[in-house]
Design a protein that fits this description.
mainly alpha, single chain, 15 helices, about 450 residues, 2 domains, elongated
Length: about 450
């Protein structure tokens, strides 16, 4: 009785919540349709009327499909008990869940996190352009590292020219001759190269400041309030300006110019003719000019090698900004919006929990109903025989056993009474004759005895 009572209570409860289950399923389907409408509206292009009717039609179809599918599952899955049939229904339910996610869940996620995903796309793009601007700026300034070497070489040539002019440190003869002229010429060339490198720094810094201004504007557009679409358009315009600045920085790099100047120092070296008044001075001048030639060649090779290392650095490839829709942004940056994805999927797949609950409750009702069927249909005689068999098996003779035996005797039917035979019936309505007094033996004659027996002749 207790199992049957539980099954009845479960059945009554299921009947009571049936309306609530339908209402909850309808609300979930409607909510999914609303967010699907918002997601579709952000994808479609065209006139406002076309976008409205197309989005509302699609969202209505999604709501009806979700309600119908889960209604079928709520009805059939709890009733099917066979293993193969239930497995087939589970497989069908899984396939249906995938279809619902494909047609609705990602659009729900786009509606929930579309604006945030677009801002995330803009922020990632800004960070990429920050890296590009820094790299282009670094490449442009790399040639500035050659400036100290060039300045030292220029100072050395100028100093040697001054020493030769004032004290004849190289040739032993003071005055301005061919050696002083050559050293002054090399010092002037190195000084000019150093000035070119110094001027490029100012231009590079100006371009970098301009690029930083564009980046600041792009950051403001990322975090500014309001709709994302107009901000994305302004962002694209700033991207174009920034790409132009990055390209200018790469063209402003002085490394190619330094390499060409270094090659000119060696290849374009023209030594003047020795103008010494004496053969010994002319020989010494030729020796000094050969040393200057070797020094210039060494300096040229060092500068060319340093310029080659700078030019070997990879250039900044132009980055192209690709605007995304809210749905595309949600798919690309899905890992940053897992809570939004969880909410969007839960709206569509929450009925799975309802299906499992109904399946478990129906299984419990079937188990409770079948467990007491035999006990509820047993008769009194079968129960008494079972009790007697139990006493025989256990040998129980205690008070409880005696009480059970008394109950058995009380419930047993009385034995049937035996009916008397037909020939032994007596007439209860015939009165008995009074007894006659006994006569003595002396007065009793044979005749009297015969009369009593009816043997003598009849009395006249």
């Amino acid at each position: 009785m207790f199992g049957r009572h539980n099954a009845a209570r479960l059945r009554e409860t299921l009947t009571g919540i049936e309306t609530m289950t339908r209402f909850a399923l309808a609300v979930l389907a409607l909510a999914s349709g609303v967010y699907t409408y918002l997601g579709v509206r952000g994808i479609l292009d065209g006139s406002a009327t076309f976008v409205f009717f197309a989005a509302i039609t699609y969202s209505a179809a999604v709501s009806v499909a979700i309600y119908a599918f889960w209604s079928f599952m709520l009805r059939f899955v709890p009733l099917v008990t066979g293993g193969m049939q239930r497995a087939a229904l589970f497989l069908t339910m899984g396939f249906g869940c995938l279809m619902i996610m494909a047609m609705s869940s990602w659009l729900n996620a786009a509606a929930l996190a579309g604006s945030a995903a677009l801002e995330q796309h803009l922020a990632v793009t800004v960070e990429g352009y920050v890296g590009d601007l820094d790299k282009a700026h670094g490449n442009a300034l790399a040639a500035q590292s050659l400036l100290p070497d060039v300045q030292r070489a220029a100072d050395r040539f100028v100093r040697l020219a001054d020493d030769e002019r004032s004290s004849g440190a190289l040739t032993g003869t003071t005055g301005s001759g061919s050696v002083v002229q050559l050293l002054t010429q090399m010092g002037a060339q190195m000084t000019e190269l150093g000035n070119t490198i110094s001027k490029s720094r100012e231009e590079v810094n100006a371009l970098f400041e301009q690029g930083s201004t564009h980046l600041g504007k792009m950051r403001e557009l990322v975090s500014a309030p309001g709709e994302v679409a107009p901000r994305a358009d302004e962002f694209a315009a700033e991207v174009i300006e920034l790409n132009a600045v990055i390209a200018a920085l790469q063209e402003t790099g002085i490394a190619p110019s330094v390499k060409r100047a270094a090659a000119d120092l060696s290849l374009g070296f023209i030594a003047p003719v020795a103008d010494g008044q004496t053969p010994g001075l002319a020989v010494r001048q030729d020796q000094v000019m050969d040393n200057v030639r070797a020094s210039v060649a060494s300096q040229s090779a060092a500068l060319a090698q340093a310029a080659d290392e700078i030019l070997a650095e990879p250039k900044v490839e132009p980055r192209r900004f690709v605007p995304l829709s809210s749905a595309e942004a949600v798919l690309r940056y899905w890992s940053d919006f897992i809570p939004s994805w969880a909410g969007a999927i839960s709206i569509d797949l929450l009925p799975v929990v309802l299906v499992l609950v109904l399946m478990i409750v129906n299984d419990a009702m079937r188990r409770e109903s079948s467990s007491m069927e035999g006990a509820e249909s047993i008769s009194a005689a079968e129960m008494l025989r079972a009790l007697a068999l139990y006493r025989q098996m256990t040998g129980d003779t205690g008070p409880e056993a005696r009480l059970m035996a008394d109950a058995e005797r009380a419930m047993s039917p009385p034995p049937a009474e035996e009916k008397p035979a037909a020939h032994t019936e007596t007439k209860l309505d015939t009165p008995a004759e009074p007894a006659k007094p006994l006569e003595s033996d002396a007065t009793v004659t044979p005749l009297d005895t015969a009369r009593k027996r009816g043997d003598g002749p009849a009395r006249a």
